[in-house]
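Supplementary Methods S3. Complex input for the nicotinamide-adenine-dinucleotide-bound model.
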Amino acid sequence: MGILKGKTAVVTGSTSGIGLACARAFAGAGANIVLNGMGTPAEVERDRAAIERDFAVKAIYSPADMAKSSEISELIALAEKTFGSVDVLINNAGIQHVSPIEEFPIEKWDAVIAINLSAAFHAIRAAVPGMKKRGWGRIITTASAHSLVASPFKSAYVAAKHGIAGLTKTVALELARSKITCNCISPGYVWTPLVERQIPNTMEARRMKRDEVINDVLLAAQPTKEFVTVKQVASLALFLCSDDAAQITGANLPVDGGWTAA
Ligand SMILES: NC(=O)c1ccc[n+]([C@@H]2O[C@H](COP(=O)([O-])OP(=O)(O)OC[C@H]3O[C@@H](n4cnc5c(N)ncnc54)[C@H](O)[C@@H]3O)[C@@H](O)[C@H]2O)c1
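Predicted complex, serialized as C-alpha coordinates:
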Protein backbone atom coordinates (compact mmCIF):
# COMPACT_ATOMS: atom_id res chain seq x y z
CA MET A 1 0.00 0.00 0.00
CA GLY A 2 1.32 3.46 -0.90
CA ILE A 3 2.54 5.65 1.96
CA LEU A 4 0.09 8.43 0.98
CA LYS A 5 -2.99 6.24 0.48
CA GLY A 6 -6.10 8.25 1.38
CA LYS A 7 -4.16 11.50 1.69
CA THR A 8 -4.38 14.59 -0.49
CA ALA A 9 -1.46 16.44 -2.06
CA VAL A 10 -1.73 19.96 -3.45
CA VAL A 11 1.14 20.68 -5.83
CA THR A 12 1.37 24.25 -7.11
CA GLY A 13 2.94 24.69 -10.53
CA SER A 14 2.36 21.04 -11.43
CA THR A 15 1.50 21.35 -15.11
CA SER A 16 5.18 21.06 -16.00
CA GLY A 17 8.68 20.09 -14.87
CA ILE A 18 9.38 19.34 -11.19
CA GLY A 19 5.78 19.90 -10.07
CA LEU A 20 4.32 17.42 -12.53
CA ALA A 21 6.96 14.85 -11.51
CA CYS A 22 6.03 15.39 -7.83
CA ALA A 23 2.32 15.05 -8.59
CA ARG A 24 2.91 11.76 -10.38
CA ALA A 25 5.23 10.47 -7.62
CA PHE A 26 2.66 11.27 -4.92
CA ALA A 27 -0.13 9.71 -6.97
CA GLY A 28 2.07 6.63 -7.30
CA ALA A 29 2.17 6.55 -3.49
CA GLY A 30 -1.64 6.64 -3.33
CA ALA A 31 -2.43 10.35 -2.83
CA ASN A 32 -5.30 12.17 -4.47
CA ILE A 33 -3.84 15.11 -6.36
CA VAL A 34 -4.69 18.76 -6.88
CA LEU A 35 -2.87 19.98 -9.97
CA ASN A 36 -2.26 23.69 -10.55
CA GLY A 37 -0.44 25.83 -13.05
CA MET A 38 -0.60 27.25 -16.55
CA GLY A 39 -1.21 25.26 -19.70
CA THR A 40 -3.70 24.76 -22.47
CA PRO A 41 -6.92 23.03 -21.39
CA ALA A 42 -6.05 20.04 -23.61
CA GLU A 43 -2.55 19.60 -22.13
CA VAL A 44 -3.78 19.99 -18.55
CA GLU A 45 -6.60 17.51 -19.10
CA ARG A 46 -4.18 15.03 -20.70
CA ASP A 47 -1.90 15.15 -17.64
CA ARG A 48 -4.79 15.07 -15.14
CA ALA A 49 -6.44 12.08 -16.83
CA ALA A 50 -3.08 10.27 -17.09
CA ILE A 51 -2.59 10.55 -13.32
CA GLU A 52 -6.04 9.04 -12.63
CA ARG A 53 -5.48 6.29 -15.21
CA ASP A 54 -1.90 5.41 -14.28
CA PHE A 55 -2.29 5.41 -10.49
CA ALA A 56 -6.00 4.77 -9.75
CA VAL A 57 -6.36 7.94 -7.64
CA LYS A 58 -8.49 11.07 -8.09
CA ALA A 59 -6.91 14.17 -9.61
CA ILE A 60 -8.47 17.60 -10.02
CA TYR A 61 -7.08 20.78 -11.54
CA SER A 62 -7.21 24.37 -10.30
CA PRO A 63 -6.09 27.26 -12.52
CA ALA A 64 -5.41 29.46 -9.45
CA ASP A 65 -2.87 32.18 -10.16
CA MET A 66 -0.09 31.95 -7.59
CA ALA A 67 0.45 35.70 -7.91
CA LYS A 68 -2.98 36.31 -6.30
CA SER A 69 -3.52 35.64 -2.60
CA SER A 70 -7.30 35.22 -2.94
CA GLU A 71 -6.89 32.53 -5.62
CA ILE A 72 -4.34 30.69 -3.45
CA SER A 73 -6.86 30.56 -0.57
CA GLU A 74 -9.47 29.29 -3.04
CA LEU A 75 -7.07 26.55 -4.20
CA ILE A 76 -6.67 25.22 -0.65
CA ALA A 77 -10.43 25.55 -0.01
CA LEU A 78 -11.20 23.64 -3.23
CA ALA A 79 -8.85 20.80 -2.19
CA GLU A 80 -10.40 20.58 1.28
CA LYS A 81 -13.94 20.69 -0.12
CA THR A 82 -13.24 18.02 -2.75
CA PHE A 83 -11.11 15.59 -0.74
CA GLY A 84 -11.70 16.61 2.90
CA SER A 85 -8.09 17.56 3.63
CA VAL A 86 -4.79 18.94 2.45
CA ASP A 87 -2.19 16.63 3.97
CA VAL A 88 0.74 17.46 1.72
CA LEU A 89 1.39 20.94 0.35
CA ILE A 90 4.09 21.36 -2.25
CA ASN A 91 4.86 25.00 -3.00
CA ASN A 92 6.52 24.60 -6.34
CA ALA A 93 5.21 27.24 -8.79
CA GLY A 94 8.05 29.46 -9.87
CA ILE A 95 9.23 31.82 -12.56
CA GLN A 96 12.59 33.30 -13.43
CA HIS A 97 13.74 36.58 -14.91
CA VAL A 98 17.33 37.34 -15.81
CA SER A 99 18.47 40.97 -16.08
CA PRO A 100 21.14 43.33 -14.75
CA ILE A 101 19.89 44.99 -11.55
CA GLU A 102 19.76 48.50 -12.99
CA GLU A 103 17.56 47.34 -15.87
CA PHE A 104 15.49 44.79 -13.94
CA PRO A 105 11.84 45.52 -14.85
CA ILE A 106 9.92 46.42 -11.69
CA GLU A 107 6.89 44.35 -12.72
CA LYS A 108 9.18 41.30 -13.17
CA TRP A 109 10.62 41.81 -9.66
CA ASP A 110 7.07 41.98 -8.24
CA ALA A 111 5.98 38.86 -10.15
CA VAL A 112 9.03 36.77 -9.16
CA ILE A 113 8.63 37.70 -5.47
CA ALA A 114 4.86 37.06 -5.58
CA ILE A 115 5.00 33.66 -7.28
CA ASN A 116 8.27 32.28 -5.84
CA LEU A 117 7.98 33.60 -2.26
CA SER A 118 4.67 35.17 -1.22
CA ALA A 119 2.61 32.34 -2.76
CA ALA A 120 4.24 29.87 -0.35
CA PHE A 121 3.28 32.09 2.60
CA HIS A 122 -0.34 32.35 1.43
CA ALA A 123 -0.66 28.61 0.76
CA ILE A 124 0.94 27.58 4.05
CA ARG A 125 -1.23 30.09 5.95
CA ALA A 126 -4.37 28.61 4.37
CA ALA A 127 -3.40 24.92 4.71
CA VAL A 128 -2.02 24.84 8.27
CA PRO A 129 -5.35 25.08 10.18
CA GLY A 130 -6.61 21.87 8.51
CA MET A 131 -3.29 20.08 9.05
CA LYS A 132 -3.33 21.07 12.73
CA LYS A 133 -6.90 19.81 13.11
CA ARG A 134 -5.89 16.41 11.70
CA GLY A 135 -2.56 16.32 13.56
CA TRP A 136 -0.40 15.56 10.51
CA GLY A 137 1.05 17.44 7.60
CA ARG A 138 3.94 17.80 5.22
CA ILE A 139 4.90 21.18 3.73
CA ILE A 140 7.66 21.16 1.12
CA THR A 141 8.76 24.11 -0.97
CA THR A 142 10.91 23.90 -4.06
CA ALA A 143 13.63 26.42 -3.26
CA SER A 144 16.86 26.33 -5.28
CA ALA A 145 20.62 26.30 -4.95
CA HIS A 146 19.92 30.02 -5.25
CA SER A 147 18.49 29.88 -1.71
CA LEU A 148 22.09 29.26 -0.58
CA VAL A 149 24.28 31.07 -3.11
CA ALA A 150 23.76 33.85 -5.66
CA SER A 151 24.38 34.29 -9.37
CA PRO A 152 24.56 37.59 -11.21
CA PHE A 153 21.47 38.94 -13.02
CA LYS A 154 19.00 36.94 -10.89
CA SER A 155 18.34 39.44 -8.10
CA ALA A 156 14.61 38.76 -7.68
CA TYR A 157 14.93 34.97 -7.92
CA VAL A 158 17.85 34.79 -5.47
CA ALA A 159 16.04 37.11 -3.03
CA ALA A 160 12.84 35.04 -3.26
CA LYS A 161 14.60 31.70 -2.80
CA HIS A 162 16.66 32.95 0.16
CA GLY A 163 13.31 34.10 1.56
CA ILE A 164 11.93 30.57 1.17
CA ALA A 165 14.81 29.19 3.25
CA GLY A 166 13.93 31.60 6.08
CA LEU A 167 10.19 31.01 5.81
CA THR A 168 10.77 27.25 5.94
CA LYS A 169 12.76 27.46 9.19
CA THR A 170 10.22 29.79 10.83
CA VAL A 171 7.21 27.63 9.92
CA ALA A 172 9.05 24.46 11.02
CA LEU A 173 9.68 25.94 14.46
CA GLU A 174 6.09 27.15 14.82
CA LEU A 175 4.69 23.71 13.91
CA ALA A 176 7.32 21.54 15.63
CA ARG A 177 4.84 20.17 18.19
CA SER A 178 2.03 19.62 15.66
CA LYS A 179 3.40 16.61 13.73
CA ILE A 180 3.66 18.87 10.70
CA THR A 181 7.07 19.16 9.06
CA CYS A 182 8.18 22.01 6.82
CA ASN A 183 11.22 21.67 4.59
CA CYS A 184 12.56 23.00 1.35
CA ILE A 185 14.44 21.25 -1.44
CA SER A 186 17.14 23.18 -3.25
CA PRO A 187 17.86 21.76 -6.68
CA GLY A 188 20.75 22.83 -8.82
CA TYR A 189 19.99 22.97 -12.53
CA VAL A 190 17.19 20.61 -13.45
CA TRP A 191 16.46 20.28 -17.15
CA THR A 192 12.92 21.70 -17.34
CA PRO A 193 11.11 24.33 -19.44
CA LEU A 194 12.06 26.96 -16.81
CA VAL A 195 15.76 26.41 -17.50
CA GLU A 196 15.29 26.24 -21.26
CA ARG A 197 13.40 29.54 -21.21
CA GLN A 198 16.18 31.47 -19.43
CA ILE A 199 18.84 30.51 -21.98
CA PRO A 200 18.03 33.27 -24.54
CA ASN A 201 18.11 36.05 -21.89
CA THR A 202 21.37 34.73 -20.47
CA MET A 203 22.83 34.57 -23.99
CA GLU A 204 21.95 38.22 -24.41
CA ALA A 205 23.05 39.39 -20.93
CA ARG A 206 26.40 37.60 -21.20
CA ARG A 207 26.81 37.84 -24.99
CA MET A 208 27.32 34.06 -25.26
CA LYS A 209 26.23 31.22 -27.57
CA ARG A 210 23.68 28.61 -26.45
CA ASP A 211 26.27 25.85 -25.86
CA GLU A 212 28.42 28.26 -23.87
CA VAL A 213 25.46 29.17 -21.64
CA ILE A 214 24.69 25.48 -20.99
CA ASN A 215 28.27 24.38 -20.31
CA ASP A 216 30.01 27.52 -19.04
CA VAL A 217 27.14 29.13 -17.09
CA LEU A 218 24.53 26.53 -16.10
CA LEU A 219 26.67 23.43 -15.55
CA ALA A 220 29.75 25.46 -14.62
CA ALA A 221 28.65 25.52 -10.99
CA GLN A 222 27.60 21.86 -10.88
CA PRO A 223 30.67 19.69 -10.14
CA THR A 224 29.02 16.50 -11.47
CA LYS A 225 28.53 18.29 -14.84
CA GLU A 226 25.10 16.69 -15.11
CA PHE A 227 21.62 18.18 -14.86
CA VAL A 228 19.49 17.03 -11.92
CA THR A 229 16.40 15.08 -13.05
CA VAL A 230 12.83 15.90 -12.06
CA LYS A 231 12.50 12.32 -10.77
CA GLN A 232 15.41 12.83 -8.36
CA VAL A 233 13.70 15.89 -6.87
CA ALA A 234 10.30 14.18 -6.69
CA SER A 235 11.80 11.12 -4.97
CA LEU A 236 13.25 13.31 -2.21
CA ALA A 237 9.92 15.11 -1.80
CA LEU A 238 8.17 11.76 -1.45
CA PHE A 239 10.72 10.59 1.13
CA LEU A 240 10.03 13.77 3.15
CA CYS A 241 6.38 12.65 3.30
CA SER A 242 7.30 9.31 4.89
CA ASP A 243 7.31 8.43 8.59
CA ASP A 244 11.08 7.92 8.31
CA ALA A 245 11.38 11.66 7.62
CA ALA A 246 9.24 12.75 10.59
CA GLN A 247 12.24 14.29 12.36
CA ILE A 248 13.44 16.22 9.33
CA THR A 249 11.98 19.70 9.68
CA GLY A 250 13.27 23.19 8.98
CA ALA A 251 15.83 21.69 6.60
CA ASN A 252 17.01 23.08 3.30
CA LEU A 253 18.10 20.03 1.32
CA PRO A 254 20.34 20.58 -1.72
CA VAL A 255 20.05 18.27 -4.77
CA ASP A 256 22.63 20.11 -6.80
CA GLY A 257 25.43 17.82 -7.99
CA GLY A 258 27.74 19.36 -5.37
CA TRP A 259 27.19 23.00 -6.43
CA THR A 260 26.76 24.42 -2.91
CA ALA A 261 29.54 22.22 -1.47
CA ALA A 262 32.08 24.26 -3.41
N1 LIG B 1 14.64 23.78 -13.28
C1 LIG B 1 15.59 24.12 -12.43
O1 LIG B 1 16.79 24.06 -12.75
C2 LIG B 1 15.26 24.56 -11.05
C3 LIG B 1 16.30 24.65 -10.13
C4 LIG B 1 16.02 25.06 -8.85
C5 LIG B 1 14.73 25.37 -8.50
N2 LIG B 1 13.72 25.29 -9.41
C6 LIG B 1 12.36 25.62 -8.96
O2 LIG B 1 11.51 24.54 -9.23
C7 LIG B 1 10.18 25.03 -9.37
C8 LIG B 1 9.58 24.43 -10.62
O3 LIG B 1 10.32 24.84 -11.73
P1 LIG B 1 10.49 23.99 -13.06
O4 LIG B 1 11.92 24.04 -13.40
O5 LIG B 1 9.79 22.69 -12.96
O6 LIG B 1 9.77 25.00 -14.08
P2 LIG B 1 8.56 24.86 -15.10
O7 LIG B 1 8.52 26.15 -15.83
O8 LIG B 1 8.67 23.58 -15.84
O9 LIG B 1 7.31 24.76 -14.13
C9 LIG B 1 6.85 25.88 -13.42
C10 LIG B 1 5.40 25.62 -13.03
O10 LIG B 1 4.93 26.81 -12.34
C11 LIG B 1 3.70 27.19 -12.96
N3 LIG B 1 3.46 28.60 -12.78
C12 LIG B 1 4.20 29.66 -13.20
N4 LIG B 1 3.58 30.81 -12.86
C13 LIG B 1 2.45 30.48 -12.21
C14 LIG B 1 1.40 31.21 -11.62
N5 LIG B 1 1.37 32.55 -11.64
N6 LIG B 1 0.38 30.53 -11.03
C15 LIG B 1 0.38 29.17 -11.02
N7 LIG B 1 1.35 28.43 -11.56
C16 LIG B 1 2.36 29.07 -12.15
C17 LIG B 1 3.86 26.80 -14.43
O11 LIG B 1 2.60 26.77 -15.09
C18 LIG B 1 4.49 25.44 -14.26
O12 LIG B 1 3.51 24.46 -13.97
C19 LIG B 1 10.29 26.56 -9.38
O13 LIG B 1 9.94 27.06 -8.11
C20 LIG B 1 11.75 26.80 -9.68
O14 LIG B 1 12.19 28.03 -9.18
C21 LIG B 1 13.95 24.88 -10.68
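The chain has one domain: 8-188+229-255. The helical segments are 17-28, 41-55, 69-83, 106-134, 155-174, 193-206, 210-218, 230-240.
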